[in-house]
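ok new one. same drill as before - structure tokens go in, u give me an amino acid for every spot. 90 of them this time. try not to just spam alanines like last time pls lmao
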């Protein structure tokens, strides 16, 4: 810990932010994994799962937790899966 009061306060704030960001990153990974597995299994809810994952990517990017280019890459990958699914059914 720092010997200054403001340094200690900043360290506590950083730790709170780190834990919150970790939660958001973990839920983002969970949404993406569920979307990919639902698509792979050919489930009816695959579209909803993919849209939920895209939404969570957008939220993480807007909060600055992941870089916007990574967010775009993840969304593109998910939307490609959705497009292939629609071509197959349609």
């Amino acid at each position: 810990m720092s010997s200054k009061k403001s340094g200690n306060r900043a360290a506590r704030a950083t730790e709170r932010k780190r834990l919150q960001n970790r939660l958001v990153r973990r839920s983002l990974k969970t949404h993406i994994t569920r979307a990919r597995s639902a698509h792979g299994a050919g489930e009816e809810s695959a579209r909803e799962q993919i849209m939920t994952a895209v939404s969570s990517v957008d939220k993480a990017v807007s909060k600055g937790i992941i870089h916007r280019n990574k967010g775009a890459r993840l969304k593109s990958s998910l939307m490609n899966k959705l497009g292939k699914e629609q071509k197959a059914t349609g």
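The radius of gyration is 18 Å. and btw DSSP finds three helices and no strands in the chain.
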